[in-house]
Amino acid sequence: MSDCLFCKIRDGLIPAKVVYRDDVCVAFEDINPQAPTHLLFIPHKHIPTVNDITTEDQALVGHLFTSAAKVARERGHADANNGYRVVMNTHAHAGQTVFHIHLHLLAGRPLGWPPG
Ligand code: AMP
Ligand code: ZN
Predict the structure, then answer these.
(1) In a domain, 112, yes or no
(2) What pLDDT is stored for residue 2 in this prediction?
(3) What is the dihedral of CA 66, 35, 107, 29, to 10 degrees?
């Protein structure tokens, strides 16, 4: 039995506000949103960090991006005069807290750069 929080969300063992699901990924609302839209796109496959992505996972990782872009478009965030950010944090300095890769989709307000 996996002890991974996001595997449990994937399996419906822990509740989450799921907004998108297909045979490769699941997207749900972040419990502590940092923007009006803050979604997490996870692969069904448990991959702890970006360091653990292999060449076999290339299609899967691409799928996370196309899925995030699709949802961003559907929510009206894709226009040139608004826009959105997708990001994956890796290990301590980037603030990774859940070790199942997840693509953050942040949108709905101007996002500062560089990030903190
Ligand atoms: P990271 O810091 O990049 O590892 O991102 C982990 C994200 O997961 C954070 O933005 C958390 O707010 C979010 N998170 C933690 N627990 C849950 C949960 N039970 N449901 C939804 N999002 C969560
Ligand atoms: Zn997992």
Answers:
(1) no
(2) 81
(3) 30
Q: Look up the CATH number of the domain holding residue 71.
A: 3.30.428.10
| Atom number, ligand 1, closest to the C-alpha of residue 99 | 4
Cα 104 from Cα 27, distance rounded (Å): 9
Distance 30 CA to ligand 2 centre (A): 16
Ligand 1 within 6 A of CB of 15: no
90 in a structural domain: yes
In a domain, 82, yes or no: yes
- Cα(79) to centroid of ligand 2, in Å? 33
Which of 4, 19, 98 to probe ligand 1 with, by most ligand atoms within 8 A of CB?
Answer: 98
Binning the chain into helix, strand and coil, the percentages to the nearest 5 are: 30, 20, 50
Count of domains forming the chain: 1
Summarised one tens digit per residue, pLDDT across range 92-103 is 999 999 999 999
* Range of the structural domain that residue 80 is part of: 5-107
